[in-house]
Recover the amino acids of this structure.
């Protein structure tokens, strides 16, 4: 069979061909080899231009052609191989070559698709590898961009957290002054009914503003590392203003609280944040407005409410009094959830909202789990949603509200050093505690406090946390090194890291709640063997 | 469509008018960074929404916006992961277009959800070329006009791209390319 094709067609079919004469001289060079090997010229010897162990003479080429065998050659001084067939022609030989797969070929930027025969799979393979490399580079670039974006976001969040912390701290200091002076005014007595009402208004306003600062602290991700026992209904009422602000103006927020003063051992800020998450979810389920009901009650066990729960009820049951649980229910009149969404609602990063982070309910789940409780969901499309938090009733109930009046005082009263850089707050604290029979000394910074401590044996150090110079924690560390019996109560609008507080130290969050202050000082006195609470 | 198309639109806007313009378009289209993941496959409707918002922002009709994006896409693709294989596919207009299907064959291997078009050179004379185009998608002819302009620009050619009635009864669309090297006068066009 003979086939007549033009030289151009030969070039298209076998771009890397060679024609050699009987003396092994190159007569014609295919277009691909001509481009890739620009120094190769007609007249060059095949054996000089290429390295091959299979061919030493024209007889070898004839033998390969007759056997329909393969020939492999490597251009001298180049690292890629070519392989193909030899066809005997009247004037010599036609050697149809193809590039062989190798890194040198794949990475060779001189090669173009037309340098390969139309059916040569190497061309597609090379493109695929190059595309994959390109996609990989693009993925790396995307990863770098995402990392930068994440860093920017973290930085922004951190900045916002700091601003919120500072704002809350300063605001709490101011609220402390108000709260303490109201307390002093009440102690002085002799108030007309109208004046007492004014003080009520101020106290109520301080309480509401305190709720707002808790919101700021929640925004700042301040952990309330000082878990303590609280009547749960009081906590919920205290948070009313904050929760209403999270629920928004279109939503009516109502409370139905019926735990009868049952207490829960809980981090206040964590509970506030948990409820805030539920408020936000409920609000978003009611874009046109609606009603949220926060209710509480005592139940024998979480399953009593008939909905499957998530959490650690078994672990928590050790701390539950007589197997009793406090149930907090947050119900909305929103659009509800489909069963398949409800079953995944507490999963991290799961959200039915277009831009939801999937963090809200997951953090609620974490909160109840950390507190030995359970959480569950009751919902249906069009029928609203109820989230049920079950927390164990605290087994260590408070002993009422201890007051210093109930302290059995020693002759001269405990010696308290108050360190506070806000003069009005310092004065109010000093007067309040002096009235309660303490011997008081004051300092406006840690350095001044250390001078007092070096001369007078104090029983209690009541110090602000954030001050110019040494911090309250550094002051307390130095002071207790010199006097290990010294009792420490820290106070701040910030919540310190748990790691920074030595076991046995008390912490009083600002704005100062005089009752809580009395509790902490009572405990400190007991530890110092100075006085104890009755009962 | 793959997210890299959306990224291409995003980059076109960023290059032309900056980040603020893109933010406005995202807000109008109701999309965000989550719609810009190159290797993610999105519903075509997402890309259409972005293009419509872009057209509104530029104050041009949708077909002109598609043309503009088609031209930009060539520059965007060669700067990104397609750059290497675009160089490999051809060093002149005719070989580039003739080999596009082979390139798309590889794209489909690497990105299985891609629904790639088909291109073929139907006729060719100096300064003129007739190109046949087929796609499962409809309505993208203005994009192809821009795309072919971008390809001409890639090989330093200037000229016109016009959709013409197909020579035979076919599902394909045909385009006439008339061009001269960019240094020469457009008056030299055939």
């Amino acid at each position: 069979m003979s086939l007549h094709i033009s030289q151009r067609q030969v070039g298209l079919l076998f771009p890397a061909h060679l024609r050699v004469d009987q003396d092994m001289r190159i007569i014609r060079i295919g277009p691909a080899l001509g481009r890739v090997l620009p120094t190769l010229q007609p007249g060059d010897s095949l054996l000089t231009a290429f390295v091959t162990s299979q061919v030493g003479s024209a007889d070898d080429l004839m033998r390969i052609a007759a056997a329909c065998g393969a020939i492999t050659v490597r251009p001298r001084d180049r690292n890629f191989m070519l392989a193909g067939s030899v066809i005997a022609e009247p004037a010599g030989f036609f050697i149809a070559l193809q590039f062989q797969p190798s890194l040198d070929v794949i990475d060779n930027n001189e090669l173009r698709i037309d340098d390969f025969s139309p059916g040569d799979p190497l061309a597609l393979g090379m493109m695929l590898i190059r595309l994959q490399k390109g996609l990989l580079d693009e993925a790396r670039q995307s990863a770098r961009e995402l990392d930068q974006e994440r860093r920017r976001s973290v930085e922004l969040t951190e900045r916002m957290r700091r601003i919120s912390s500072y704002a809350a701290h300063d605001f709490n200091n101011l609220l402390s002054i108000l709260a303490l002076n109201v307390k002093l005014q009440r102690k002085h007595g002799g108030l007309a009914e109208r004046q007492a009402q004014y003080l009520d208004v101020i106290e109520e306003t301080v309480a509401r503003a305190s709720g707002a600062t808790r919101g700021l602290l929640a925004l700042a991700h301040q952990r309330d590392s000082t878990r303590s026992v609280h009547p749960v209904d009081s906590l919920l009422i205290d948070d009313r203003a904050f929760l209403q602000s999270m629920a928004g103006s279109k939503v009516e927020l109502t409370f139905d609280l019926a735990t009868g003063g049952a207490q829960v051992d809980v981090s206040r800020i964590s509970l506030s944040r948990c409820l805030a998450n539920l408020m936000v979810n409920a609000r978003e389920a009611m874009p046109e407005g609606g009603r949220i009901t926060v209710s509480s009650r005592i139940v024998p066990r979480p399953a009593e409410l008939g909905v499957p729960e998530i959490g650690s009820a078994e672990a928590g049951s050790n701390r539950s009094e007589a197997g009793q649980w406090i149930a907090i229910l947050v119900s909305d009149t929103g659009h509800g959830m489909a069963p398949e969404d409800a079953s995944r609602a507490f999963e991290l990063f799961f959200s039915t909202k277009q831009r939801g982070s999937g963090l809200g309910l997951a953090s609620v789940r974490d909160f109840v789990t950390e507190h030995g409780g359970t959480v569950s969901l009751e919902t249906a499309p069009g029928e609203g949603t109820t989230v049920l938090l079950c927390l164990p009733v605290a087994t260590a109930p408070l002993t009422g509200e201890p007051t210093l009046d109930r302290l059995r005082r020693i002759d001269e009263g405990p010696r308290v050093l108050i360190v506070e850089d806000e003069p009005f707050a310092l004065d109010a604290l000093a007067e309040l505690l002096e009235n309660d029979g303490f011997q008081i000394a004051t300092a406006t910074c840690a350095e001044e406090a250390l001078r007092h401590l070096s001369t007078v044996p104090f029983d209690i150090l009541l110090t602000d946390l954030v001050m110019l110079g040494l911090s309250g924690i550094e002051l307390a560390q130095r002071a207790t090194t010199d006097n290990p019996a010294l009792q420490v109560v820290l106070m701040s609008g910030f919540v310190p890291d748990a790691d920074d507080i030595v076991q046995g130290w008390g912490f009083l969050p600002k704005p100062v709640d005089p009752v809580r202050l009395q509790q902490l000082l009572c405990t400190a006195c007991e530890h110092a063997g100075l006085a104890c609470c009755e009962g | 469509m793959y997210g890299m198309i959306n990224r291409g639109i995003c980059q076109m806007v960023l290059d032309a008018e900056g980040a603020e313009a893109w933010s406005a378009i995202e807000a109008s289209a109701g999309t965000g960074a989550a719609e810009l993941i190159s290797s993610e496959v999105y519903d075509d409707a997402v890309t259409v929404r972005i293009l419509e918002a872009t057209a509104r922002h530029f104050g041009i009709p949708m077909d002109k916006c598609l043309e503009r994006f088609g031209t930009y896409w060539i520059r965007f693709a060669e700067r990104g992961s397609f750059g290497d294989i675009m160089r490999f596919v051809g060093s002149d207009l005719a070989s580039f277009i003739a080999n596009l299907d082979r390139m798309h064959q590889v794209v489909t291997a690497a990105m299985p959800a891609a629904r790639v078009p088909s291109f073929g050179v139907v006729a060719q004379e100096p300064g003129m070329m007739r190109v046949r185009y087929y796609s499962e998608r409809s309505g993208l002819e203005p994009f192809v006009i821009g795309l072919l302009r971008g390809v001409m620009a890639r090989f330093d050619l200037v000229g016109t791209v016009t959709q013409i009635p197909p020579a035979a009864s076919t599902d394909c669309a045909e385009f006439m390319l008339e061009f001269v090297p960019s240094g020469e006068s457009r008056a030299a066009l055939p």
